[in-house]
């Protein structure tokens, strides 16, 4: 996990192990170790105020015009992707009616926008729809999310660290998908009774 934070280009990490082995707890505690980042206030993509590669289109246009954009410091986002999420919820949606009648690209950002410059965590990724896993991996690899509807196309930065976890007893992850994660970790169940007691006491 720390290696992916240091270098997100590693390509994410997949953690497989039995239920109750602390996978989710470990992943969610990661954000407490990370420093704050500077983002453009009110921007749905957590745009970097300096680096164009991490800016949404609107912020980039404002910066290129020489505008001063308001900046705030915030904790790095960890976005949870629920199992029942639809593609629209993940990628975002385009209001076609508004686009046709008012001539504006009315885009409702999804979870990928919120995860930009942060961490996207998928618990039980082995139970997620294969198509959605492909979408996540494509965005993680390219750093961009593109939504196309009725000939209208909108793109925004989606540079995030992808972390997946799962219980192999509930379903295997396709080998083709597993290969696309930069790292893979296997978590074993602690069998020693004394050690299990110690773990419970430390978490209490």
UniProtKB/TrEMBL annotation:
Report the InterPro entries cross-referenced here: AAA+_ATPase, CHLI-like, Mg_chelatse_chII-like_cat_dom, P-loop_NTPase
Q: What is its EC number?
A: 6.6.1.1
Gene Ontology biological process terms, A to Z: chlorophyll biosynthetic process; photosynthesis
One GO molecular-function entry: magnesium chelatase activity
Keyword Ligase part of the UniProt annotation: yes
Q: Which domain of life is it from?
A: Eukaryota
Q: In which pathway does it act?
A: Porphyrin-containing compound metabolism; chlorophyll biosynthesis
Kindly give the SMART domains that the UniProt entry links to this protein: AAA
Show where the AAA+ ATPase domain sits. Answer: 9-191
Q: Which UniProt keywords apply?
A: ATP-binding, Chlorophyll biosynthesis, Ligase, Nucleotide-binding, Photosynthesis
Q: List the GO cellular component terms.
A: chloroplast stroma
| Record-linked Gene3D superfamilies | P-loop containing nucleotide triphosphate hydrolases
Q: Which family does it belong to?
A: Belongs to the Mg-chelatase subunits D/I family.
Q: What is this protein called?
A: magnesium chelatase
Instruction: State the organism named in the record.
Output: Neslia paniculata
């Amino acid at each position: 996990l720390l290696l992916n934070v240091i270098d997100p280009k590693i390509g994410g990490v997949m953690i497989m192990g039995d239920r109750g082995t602390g996978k989710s707890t470990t992943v969610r505690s990661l954000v407490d170790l990370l420093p704050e980042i500077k983002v453009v206030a009110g921007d749905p993509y957590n745009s970097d105020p300096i680096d164009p590669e991490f800016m949404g289109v609107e912020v980039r246009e404002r910066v290129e015009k020489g505008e001063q954009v308001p900046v705030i410091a915030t904790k790095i986002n960890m976005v949870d992707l629920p199992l029942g999420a639809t593609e629209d919820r993940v990628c975002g949606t385009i209001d076609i009616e508004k686009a046709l009648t008012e001539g504006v690209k009315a885009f409702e950002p999804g979870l990928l926008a919120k995860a930009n410059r942060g961490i996207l965590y998928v618990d039980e990724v082995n139970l997620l729809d294969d198509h959605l896993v492909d979408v996540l991996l494509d965005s993680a690899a390219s750093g961009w999310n593109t939504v196309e509807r009725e000939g209208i196309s909108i793109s925004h930065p989606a540079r995030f660290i992808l972390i997946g976890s799962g219980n192999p007893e509930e379903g295997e992850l396709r080998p083709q998908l597993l290969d696309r994660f930069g790292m893979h970790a296997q978590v074993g169940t602690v069998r020693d009774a004394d050690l299990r007691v110690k773990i419970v006491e430390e978490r209490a």
